[in-house]
Amino acid sequence: MNILAIETSADETAAAVTNKRKVLSNVIYSQILLHKKWGGIYPSLAKRAHEERIDQIIDETLIKFTKVEVFHPEGGHARIMQNIDYIAVTQGPGLAIALEVGIRKAKELAEKYNKKIITVNHLEGHIYSSFVQNSKGNPKRDFKFPYLVLIVSGGHTEIVLFKNHMEFEVLGETLDDAAGEALDKAGKILGLGYPAGPAIERLSSQVENKDFYGFPRPMIKSGNLDFSFSGLKTSFYYFIQGHSGKREDEKSERIQNRFWTSQNDKKLTELASSFQEAIFETLLIKTEFAINKTGINKLVVGGGVIANLYLRKLLRDLVKKHKGEVYFPTYKYLTGDNAAMIGVAAYYKAQKKMFAPDLNFDRIPRLTL
Amino acid sequence: MTIIKFKDKKVSEKTIKALKNGGLVISPSDTVYGILVDTANEKAVEKLIRFKNRPWGKPISVFVADFKMLEENVFLTKDRLSLLKEVLPGPFTVVLPSKHNVIKLLESEKGSLGIRIPDYRFITELAKKFARPISATSANLSGRSPHYSVQSLLHEMPENKKKLIDLVIDAGKLPRNKPSTIVDLTTPKIKILRQGEIVFKEKKIYISKSETQTKKIAQYILRKISRGLQKKPLILIIEGNLGVGKTIFVKGIADILGINNIVSPTFVIYYEYSVSAHPQGVFFKNKLIHIDLYNIQDPEEFKHLGLEKYLEKGNILCFEWGEKAGEIMDTLKSRGKIVYVKMKYVDEKIREITVKN
């Protein structure tokens, strides 16, 4: 069963052809380089870039799939599409105008080549990313349900019970900012550019990921599995305000600039590390709480923040303590947004005949599991 | 004692009948359960004072329907009137020199009267139909805490007190709003006699000491600015530094519209929600768009956000980092009602929230 998958939920334009869990071809066009310059997602570019590149990305994906070098758009498409059984597309959650681009394209192809569509929740993709295989079928991880899933990315922070294929139960989620977003915002306060995660990881490792300032671990005593990172952001901001000796009514960027040019690097690394530690320890505490609460010690982790090797180590240590196992996305490109994970999730939906009944579906920017 | 449901179609008629007969009526309000009596019927007022165990000489406030009825009952200067027009209807009791059109027992020894225009249509309509002020005192005995449900109220009430009550209007559990803020306007310097949920300021500045309070203030502001705004979308431009509580403010607004899954939209720029609750007096029945311009750097951006399609009546657009909305402000202004909300840190916990139309 070959699936052509399309993903345009945020700033990656991506397409892939998958067969069961195997990725036969995969193309990602990331706008992060474009966005880096601007310090965040750049929606006009996001929408325009998706629109401009979607055709080309799908073509490239199909070319790679057939290993045909020269490609004639019309006749070629039709011939290759004969080998595609279904079209999968991300329906949400995500940026409305970005999701629309992928969905429009999926509908167009479905109509033209008479294919069924499988709509996929972006979070389903992240969950399955730890089970994605390369074209040769590696790695050969079996499913041993149930799992606890931790999704940590720029847009999401959730703990999910993964009972069986396509059977999810959200046990906890962020009530405000996502962990990745909090890291990005702290990074911006520290003048680190976008995305700030990798820079914070690097700075933190220079001081052995120690905690110097003891910023709060939000909601760790809430007794549930929900997260909240906005208060942590407040205390971080307030801490820096206090130490920069500037008043609130001044433009914050100016404060930061003046502050940071006058500070030494040591302070910067200590702040970055302390903030990262506050986020990670909160994730760890909640994950451990979930393990204790459910008695499940097999952990699946997905999302961009798990590219952080230190967080991986912390989670490995945690499951070791509980004599469990932890699974991370099988290849690095699977931590970020990509269409391969969407195609793999779609396969399990197809198995359950979960097809879109017609082409009248719309994007759902706040889609939940 | 008769108990009727708030939803009862004849609730208004039955209440008026009971009031006309000099009866005591327990009624829901915008704050807590209160006791209504006819303020021109001395026997009724005496019965009320007996019911409350109220020391004689301690005044009792009154509800009026509108500013017209307010001016019929108290003296006030033009300045004070325009100040009150900013905050009323709302959870405030204002104390002003009485024109003595109500029973004297309700007034203070100095001849002033506490008066309320509640943000609660049932009561303002009632006062209008009744054509005179109605008492506005909480349905607890003096010195006891107020009640948010009829059940708890009746549970605590001694049998001999129950006999004094003629009608109880049961509206179920009321939201836990504090009693009104009492503001003394009889002297040139404004005095706060009792602090309720909303801080009374001459300018539209609110002080919040907690997330819960920020939400309540947001809801209060929404109710205020919603009034008369039926034909345009409402656009809230929320400004303030990182972590000041902008998302909390939006959550407060979303709460009363029946939306309880607001999260930060920073990563995707904006999220769209469908309104599922329709509180009275709030005319936004379609969508709430929660936008975060934090990541926006270039004015060119806005052309591609697709926000214009949301500029329709019945929608609310909440912009975080609204100060970056400069480029689309003209479009927003021409097609919607803009309200600026500025949030500032006072200290790590306390915020100052300023509203400008």
TrEMBL record, chain A:
Keyword Transferase: yes
Binding site for substrate: I151, V152, S153, G154, G155, D184, G197, E201, N308
Cofactor: record remark: Binds 1 Fe(2+) ion per subunit.
Occurrences of domain Gcp-like (ranges): 22-343
CDD domains, per the entry: ASKHA_NBD_TsaD_bac
UniProt-annotated binding residues for Fe cation: H122, H126, D337
SUPFAM superfamilies for this protein: Actin-like ATPase domain
Cell compartment(s), UniProt: Cytoplasm
Main location: cytoplasm
Chemical reaction(s) catalysed: L-threonylcarbamoyladenylate + adenosine(37) in tRNA = N(6)-L-threonylcarbamoyladenosine(37) in tRNA + AMP + H(+)
Gene Ontology annotations for the cellular component aspect, listed alphabetically: cytoplasm
Listed EC numbers: 2.3.1.234
InterPro entries assigned: ATPase_NBD, Gcp-like_dom, KAE1/TsaD, TsaD
Cofactor dependence: Fe(2+)
Record GO terms (molecular function): iron ion binding; tRNA N(6)-L-threonylcarbamoyladenine synthase activity
Biological processes, Gene Ontology terms: tRNA threonylcarbamoyladenosine modification
Keyword list, A-Z: Acyltransferase, Cytoplasm, Iron, Metal-binding, Transferase, tRNA processing
Role played: Required for the formation of a threonylcarbamoyl group on adenosine at position 37 (t(6)A37) in tRNAs that read codons beginning with adenine. Is involved in the transfer of the threonylcarbamoyl moiety of threonylcarbamoyl-AMP (TC-AMP) to the N6 group of A37, together with TsaE and TsaB. TsaD likely plays a direct catalytic role in this reaction.
Protein name: tRNA N6-adenosine threonylcarbamoyltransferase
UniProtKB/TrEMBL annotation, chain B:
Every YrdC-like domain range: 9-198
Domain of life where this protein originates: Bacteria
EC assignment: 2.7.7.87
Enzymatic class: transferase
Similarity-based family: Belongs to the SUA5 family.
Naturally occurring in which organism (per UniProt): Candidatus Roizmanbacteria bacterium RIFCSPLOWO2_01_FULL_35_13
Entry's Gene Ontology BP terms: regulation of translational fidelity; tRNA threonylcarbamoyladenosine modification
Primary residence: cytoplasm
Name of the protein in its database record: L-threonylcarbamoyladenylate synthase
Locations listed in the record: Cytoplasm
GO cellular component: cytoplasm
InterPro entries registered for this protein in UniProt: DHBP_synth_RibB-like_a/b_dom, P-loop_NTPase, Sua5-like_dom, T6A_TsaE, TC-AMP_synthase_SUA5
GO molecular function terms listed in the Swiss-Prot or TrEMBL record: ATP binding; double-stranded RNA binding; L-threonylcarbamoyladenylate synthase; tRNA binding
Catalytic activity, reaction form: L-threonine + hydrogencarbonate + ATP = L-threonylcarbamoyladenylate + diphosphate + H2O
SUPFAM superfamilies: P-loop containing nucleoside triphosphate hydrolases, YrdC/RibB
Alphabetic keyword roster: ATP-binding, Cytoplasm, Nucleotide-binding, Nucleotidyltransferase, Transferase, tRNA processing
